[in-house]
Design brief:
Shape: elongated
Distance between the termini: 51 Å
Number of strands: 6
Structural class: alpha+beta
Mean pLDDT: 88
Strand content: 5-15%
Order of helices and strands: HEEHHHHEHHHEHEEH
Low-confidence stretches: 11-29
Number of helices: 10
């Protein structure tokens, strides 16, 4: 068997059972796909495996069907050997089987729920406008130094006032992500930062730094604004797929939370 195809088949068992079969069962087809040591392998197993491959873009072909047959036979042989050893009776194995069964049922249920509760175009447009309003119209390029104590921040500000460069002073910053770049945070939207940081940064003029330390949950910041530019957002056509996916995930999470709130747990 082609190694890549075999690997893909193994991965396909993780694909939700709710995916539509890749081919329809023809009239007169037997429900038996194969028999191993007198044990029937049902055709629905092959359908599920081929459906997983179709979802990943694998076309139906004689090679695929041969690979599916071999994989299902291998799995049946190993399952039979496991049962002979009594592993199906072990509590820890039964627990794993129960969890796997739950996972398949959950996937089928959520796939169906998503299908019957699609994200609408109006919802996507409303979310796009909400995102636009939150992001504003500008991006900011800033540097900062993060320290643990307010007095440390004041000392840095005093050095900046004397003409020292923030790039040189940033070596003492607690922020590992920016200290090696002289405190450079790159171009970012204010919404990317915690509110106290954003509020202080957006009030600065280009080239200026905060003359009083800025407190956040991370410590004390000294911020210098290097430049600003107009924020260019992707159009709704470019963002539609991503927004739709995010809304769908949010709706599913809300549905799960609603079910949890109604459940009687003792």
């Amino acid at each position: 068997m082609n190694r890549n195809l075999r690997h893909a088949l193994l991965l396909a068992f993780a694909v939700s059972i709710g995916t539509a079969p890749a081919f329809a069962q023809k009239k007169g087809d037997s429900a038996t796909f194969a028999t191993v040591n007198g044990k029937v392998i049902p055709k629905v197993r092959a359908d599920a495996l081929i459906a997983g491959q179709a979802a990943q873009g694998q076309p139906d072909s004689p090679e695929l069907r041969k690979a599916v047959t071999e994989e299902l036979v291998r799995r049946e042989i190993l399952t039979q050997e496991s049962i002979k050893k009594g592993f199906d009776k072990k509590p820890e194995v039964q627990g794993q089987i129960d969890l796997a069964r739950q996972g398949v049922l959950i996937g089928a249920y959520l796939n169906d729920w998503v299908r019957t509760h699609p994200v609408t175009e109006d919802q996507i447009k409303a979310e796009y406008e909400t995102i636009k309003s939150k992001l504003g119209s500008k991006e900011y390029k800033a540097r900062h130094i993060l320290v643990e104590k307010e007095d440390e921040a004041k000392a840095i500000i005093a050095k900046l006032k004397k003409g020292e460069k923030i790039e040189d002073l940033a070596k003492d910053s607690k922020d590992p992500g920016s200290k090696e770049r002289g405190g450079d945070l790159g171009w970012a939207n204010p919404a990317s930062f915690v509110p106290p940081f954003s509020a202080a940064m957006t009030k600065l003029e280009k080239g200026k730094f905060t003359e009083t330390p800025v407190k956040s949950d991370f410590g004390w910041h000294v911020i210098q604004l290097e430049d600003t530019r107009e924020l260019k957002l992707p159009g709704i056509e470019e963002a539609r797929a991503q927004i739709g996916q995010q809304l769908q995930q949010r709706h599913v999470q809300k549905h799960i939370e609603d079910l949890r709130a109604k459940a009687k747990v003792e």
